[in-house]
Design brief:
The complex is a heterodimer of chains A (about 190) and B (about 140).
Chain A: E1 10-11, E2 22-24, E3 28-30, E4 44-51, E5 54-60, H1 67-78, H2 94-107, E6 116-119, E7 125-131, E8 134-142, E9 145-152, E10 158-163, H3 168-177
Chain B: E1 17-22, E2 27-30, E3 35-38, E4 52-56, H1 57-62, H2 67-70, E5 79-84, H3 85-90, E6 94-96, E7 107-111, H4 116-125, E8 127-130
Antiparallel strand pairs in B: 1-4, 1-5, 2-3, 4-7, 5-8, 6-7
The chains are: A alpha+beta (about 190), B alpha+beta (about 140).
């Protein structure tokens, strides 16, 4: 299993608050190293508030190792101006950032590889995996609008669906990219 | 802006190479292909409703420019990825230079419905013309 390097201190315009985060002078936050556990099974977004230009995200539990890096990326995405791609893209909607973090923490398994996060032209966030012969992409187009693309390159099964409150299909897809953990005591 | 009515231009041959600007924020790791490549999010129509913009590589050459000459001004911090007109047509997309864009003589449009599957196929087929430093060897 590949493990992302532990995130270091990162600058964030929309600084984070909550029990897992400590704010430092100069709008810098530190993701405590001791919280970077591989067991993120209980990690979830508890609360998010957007006030003026400040985005506050409160999380519960130990985040996955790649979470700090994802926050760094989100910070940069939120700083992208209108038309950041020169093709007329919208500025990134902070609510899409929150929703994508909330969703990804809700669906991942402890052994799910790190996703890639990208900004989208509509001002949303897309996170995606290309692992184990599977392409899985989740796009948060708006705070209440998400869609999923799944392709199993081995079986050629291809699915495009809008995401509703029922996450069961998406969780099936997540299982497909999350390798089974070896049982305790197993050899080899 | 009124969205033009596009029609595929058969004078643009299937082996014509099309270049698309790629933002560094939209490069992803593909462990299936063993490379860094553009995300499918790169291959969308423009926000104003016009079709996806590309450059025709042969028209860039006609204007005595190289790929590196394109990454200046508002494109200075972007990359370039390519695919062929034939690949786009196989995805039920069309390619045309009409209507022309006065400020870019090599400009062309790739029009048609870009489902997530279509976008994903474009992203996985795209080849770096100028890619991220030290990342462009894998593909």
């Amino acid at each position: 299993m590949s493990i992302a390097s532990a995130p270091t201190e990162h600058t964030i315009r929309e600084y984070l608050t909550g029990t897992e985060y400590t704010r430092h002078p100069g709008d810098r936050t530190l993701l405590p190293r001791e919280l970077l556990s591989n067991d993120q099974s209980r990690c979830r977004v508890l609360n998010a508030r957007l006030t003026n230009d400040c985005l506050e995200i409160e999380i519960e539990g130990a985040p996955p190792t790649w979470f700090g890096r994802a926050l760094d990326q989100m910070t940069r995405f939120l700083q992208l101006p209108e038309n950041w791609d020169s093709y007329g893209a919208n500025a990134i909607d902070p609510r899409c950032v929150v929703e994508s973090l909330r969703l990804v923490l809700d669906i991942i398994r402890p052994n799910t590889p790190a996703p890639s996060f990208v900004p989208t032209r509509s001002g949303g966030i897309q996170f995606e995996w290309h692992e184990h012969g599977i392409d899985l992409e989740v796009e948060v187009e708006a705070p209440s609008s998400c869609s999923v693309y799944f392709l199993n390159n081995h079986t050629k099964e291809e699915v495009e669906l809008g995401l509703s409150y029922d996450l069961s299909r998406l969780i099936e897809f997540i299982d497909a990219i999350s390798p089974a953990r070896p049982r305790a005591g197993s050899s080899g | 802006m009124e969205v033009p009515q596009y029609a595929d231009d058969p004078t643009i041959t299937n082996d014509a190479v099309l270049w698309r600007y790629i933002r560094p924020e939209q490069v992803v790791a593909d462990n299936n292909l063993g490379c860094y490549r553009p995300s499918s999010a790169c291959f969308t129509d423009s926000s104003d409703g016009t079709a996806m913009s590309v450059l025709l590589a042969n028209l860039v050459a006609v204007s005595n420019r190289h790929a590196s000459d394109l990454l200046t001004g508002k494109w200075h911090d972007t990359y370039l990825a390519s695919f062929t007109a034939g690949f786009a047509r196989n995805l039920d997309l069309g390619v045309t230079t009409d209507p022309p864009v006065p400020e870019e003589p090599a400009h062309a449009w790739v029009f048609g419905k870009k489902t997530k599957g279509v976008r994903s196929r474009l992203a996985k087929a795209a080849q770096w013309v100028i890619g991220p430093p030290a990342l462009d060897k894998g593909k």
